[in-house]
Amino acid sequence: MTEAVSLYDGVAPGSEDWRHEEVCSVGSPLGEDKMVRNVVRPTLTPVLPEPSMATGTGVLVCPGGGYFALAIDHEGMDVAGWLAERGLAAFVLKYRLSETPASEEEMASLMAGAAAAAEGAGPRDLETQPFLAELMQRMDDFAPIPLADGRAAMEIIRSRSDEWGVDPSRVGAVGFSAGGRLVLDLSLQAQAELRPAFVGPIYAVNPGTEVPADAPPAFVAAAADDPLFEHSVRAHAAWRQARRPVEAHLYSRGGHGFGLHKQGLPSDGWIEQFHAWMASEGF
């Protein structure tokens, strides 16, 4: 792993008046892994393979967390390490987030409210819950900020491809939940030269944008007991409608946010299947 690279010289455009301080904690209402919040200065952390193993493929890794947190371990650094061990250059994106309370107590109270709102919600009615419907709207409103960071990250990876040992035409992206939304936004809205060569939206929040005729190949994975499962079903259907290459792994169990956590379920194997799919697509 090399040192994190700042995405911008100076203050990130669009956040000139942000004054909140980044918070990193281990153990939180989102789980026992490291969680990062209140990101103001976005960075990219390369996790590179041994040169003798390098395949020339690069993967931008985008953790999730509702655009208010980042599950930086099991949806970020752990994923990057797994890929690097197999010869893929991985780049963990720490993108900007909407502001949350600085104190862990206030944040815990906020997350308890979210958990209470989601309790008993099924796969088809989660977004009708007022609290979570508001969260989805906030994500829509905030989405241009992480998208700008994703574009900057893709530009940096391709501009420094010789240094990092990657082929600029073989740089893809994988993202989880809100990070999956970012990956979808990159593939559908970014300028053509900044689009990933392939994408892996994993239990992604789907913005519902129409898939263009030149969209990159996609690998979709989600579990049916995830309240946001239908987002992944829609993403798969949209790629098929556009006649673009897409593979879907829709597990019966696994919940939301499984990342690299092992649960003793078939969904544990998603990353091996993602790796095999990349190979089958020539990446």
Give an overview of the whole structure.
Helix content is 34%, strand content 19%. The chain has one domain (5-280): Alpha/Beta hydrolase fold, catalytic domain (Rossmann fold). It is α/β, with parallel strands linked by helices and 283 residues long. The model has no long low-confidence stretch (mean pLDDT 89). The strands form two sheets. It has an eight-stranded mixed sheet, sandwiched between helices. It has a two-stranded antiparallel ribbon with strand order 2-3.
Helix and strand arrangement:
Blueprint: E1 5-6, E2 23-28, E3 31-37, E4 43-47, E5 58-62, H1 73-84, E6 89-94, H2 104-118, H3 130-142, H4 144-159, H5 161-164, E7 171-176, H6 178-189, E8 199-202, E9 218-223, H7 229-241, E10 246-251, H8 270-280
Number of domains: 1
Low-confidence stretches: none
Distance between the termini: 22 Å
Secondary-structure class: alpha/beta
Beta-strand share of residues: 15-25%
Q: Overall 3D geometry?
A: globular
Q: What percentage of residues falls in helices of 4 or more residues?
A: 25-40%
Number of helices: 8
Q: Rg to the nearest angstrom?
A: 18 Å
CATH class: Alpha Beta
CATH superfamily membership = Alpha/Beta hydrolase fold, catalytic domain
What is the strand arrangement across the widest sheet?
A: 1-4-6-5-7-8-9-10
Q: Average pLDDT, to the nearest integer? A: 89
CATH-derived topology: Rossmann fold
Task: Label this structure with key terms.
two-stranded antiparallel sheet; 283 residues; alpha/beta; eight-stranded mixed beta sheet; single chain; 10 strands; Rossmann fold; 19% strand
